Amino acid sequence: MRILKIGGNELSDPGFVHTLAHNIARMQAETAESLIIVHGGGRAIAGMQALLGLKAVKVDGLRVTDLESLSIAQMVLSGHSNKIVVKALLEAGLDALGVSGVDGGILRCRKKQHATSDLGYVGEIVQVRTDLLQQFAGLGITTVLSPISLGLDSLTYNVNADEAASAVALATGASELDFVSSVPGVLRDGAVIPMLNATETEQLIVDGVISGGMIPKVRAALEAIHRGVIQARIVNLAGLAESGGTLFSAAIGVQNEAIQ
Description:
With 260 residues, this protein is α/β, with parallel strands linked by helices. The protein has helices at 14-31, 42-51, 67-91, 130-138, 161-172, 198-206, 214-226, 237-242; strands at residues 2-6, 35-39, 58-59, 62-63, 96-100, 107-111, 123-128, 142-146, 149-151, 156-157, 176-181, 187-188, 191-192, 195-196, 231-236, 246-249. It has 8 helices and 16 strands.
């Protein structure tokens, strides 16, 4: 099993989605490996909030979600963004099914706590229905998963898509987790850092080299590695086809000359 997380900003680019879908079709034809896609939709959510006169607020790269913003997030993620990906995969000749974490209780969560702020209806995944995901995979279906999730308290929550992808990778025992976005990897002075470990990554956060939405992305990658995913990578579309990007692996040593 392989997990791909697609950044929401890229979904507004038809060329990106079209190319991604055909790359995935080629990958699956070559490897016959089952694939689950988890996607975001941040730019579209922010655009809809602005249209309705709501201000987008983020804390450490996480979107603060009140009830109005939750309704927008559900509409954008589970409706608009999800179906863009499904349509592209179908056009590329793949069998694809779009669902949210609420459907079938695929993603169950609890309210996410933050040290300094109330994030509102933002959750963190605690359970994944791997049986349902495996059934889809067994039927040759590529699942496209929106991170809107069902709380253990029966409320609906918005979950950061990077964290949702990491949770799915852990639960399914995925061999690889790729975070695909417009960014070619973790950058320092404009150059991609090819490999990172946990200590190096946290220092880069302290130094401000890693900031904003990249913070939950790298931490999700590191958490996946720490808990058993063999390999995680932050990469753009070109790097996905060429084995580029920034690689996070348990095999990486404590020191990395690339960021000295």
